[in-house]
Amino acid sequence: MIDAEKKIGYEFKDKSLLKTALTHSSYANENHTRSNERLEFLGDSVLSIIISEFIFKEMANVNEGDLSKIRAALVCEQSLAEVAKSIGLNELVFLGRGENKTGGRYRPSITSDAFEAVLGAIYLDSDLDTAKKWVLDLMSEKIKLGCQGKLYSDYKTVLQEVIQRDGRSFVTYKTLEETGREHDRRFVVQAFVNGEPKSTAKGHSKKEAEQAAAKKTLEVYYNEKI
After folding, report:
1. Alpha-carbon span 171 to 14, nearest angstrom
2. Which of 25, 60, 172, 183 is placed for a possible disulfide with 99 were both Cys, Cβ 3.0 to 4.6 Å?
3. Apex 168 CA angle, 60 and 209, nearest 5
4. Residues belonging to the active site
5. pLDDT tens digits, residue range 8-45?
6. pLDDT by residue (tens digit) across 138-189?
7. Strands, E assignment, 13-131
8. Residue 200: phi, psi to the nearest 5?
9. Residue 187 phi, psi dihedral angles, 5° rounding
10. Smallest Cα–Cα separation from 141: which of 76, 52, 74, 87?
11. Are 36 and 22 contacting, i.e. CB atoms less than 8 angstroms apart?
12. pLDDT of residue 117
C-alpha cells in the first residue's frame, strides 16, 4: 500500500480504507471481500460539495444554471477518469480476472468510480479540509478549463435546458437492456421527454449510455449539432 499512497498523494492512518477503495466489485465477488461501491457513493457526494463550493466562490457573477453545467463537466465520468489515470490510479485497482482480461483497468467508469471511492476514503480517514485540498490540487487544471467553458459537454444537462426552452419540463431515462458478463456489461438506455420516448443508446455503464442517449436525442429531435 506504500506505493499506492505515494501515487495517490495521501498517507492513510487506516490502510484498510485504501484497500477497500481500490477494490472493484468483480474482485470483491471472487474473493468474498468488500467492494468500493459504498465509498464511491460517499465520495460522489463529497466531490459535489467541494466542487460546488469552489466554483460558487470563484465565479460570483455566474448564474445557477451555468454553475450547474460547469460542475457537471468537472465531475463527469470522462473528467474524473482522466484525473485518476494521470496519477496511475487505474493501475492500482483490484479487478477480477475477467474484468482485467477485457480491459477493465482502462474503462472510464471503473477508473472514475475508483477516484470517487478514494476521495470517500480520504474524507473518512481525515476530514473535509484534507479531502478538499487533495481534490483541488489534482483537479486544478480541469477546474481552470471548466471555468473557461473548455471541458466536455454534459449532454444530459444540455438536453434538460433545451427542452425547458421548448416549453417542456423533464427528461427521464430507462434502462431497456442489460447484457454481458459482470466484467463486460452493456447497457441500452432510452431517453424520454415528458414521457415521450426518444433516442436509445448503448454504453459500458448506465451513466455512459444515458449521456449517449441524451446526445443522440439532442441531434435527432432538437437539431443540436454537438
Report:
1. 42
2. 183
3. 80
4. 44, 116
5. 999 999 999 999 999 999 999 999 999 999 999 999 99
6. 999 999 988 887 776 678 888 888 888 767 788 999 999 999 876 678 899 9
7. none
8. -115, 155
9. -120, 140
10. 74
11. yes
12. 98
Give the cell for residue 142.
480541469
For residue 96, the SS3 value is coil
CB 56 within 8 A of CB 147: no
31's enclosing H/E stretch is helix 25-31
Q: Hey, what's the cell of 26?
A: 468483480
For residue 183, what pLDDT is reported? 64
Number of helices and strands (H, E) in the chain? Answer: 12, 3
What's this model's pTM, rounded to 2 decimal places? 0.74
Q: Please list the residues that pair with 22 across neighbouring strands.
A: none
Strand pairing partners for 189? 175, 201
The predicted-structure confidence for 36-75, as pLDDT tens digits, reads as follows 999 999 999 999 999 999 999 999 998 888 888 889 889 9
Cell numbers representing residue 111 in the block: 477508473
Specify whether the CB–CB gap between 111 and 89 falls below 8 A. yes
C-beta of residue 68 within 8 angstroms of C-beta of residue 41: no
Residues 6 or more apart whose Cβ sits within 8 Å of residue 196 = none
Backbone φ and ψ for 172, nearest 5 degrees, come out as -130, 165
Displacement of CA 179 from its chain's centroid (Å):
21
Per-residue model confidence (pLDDT) at position 135: 97
Strand partners, 197: 192
- Among 9, 2, 42, which residue's Cα sits nearest to residue 19? 2
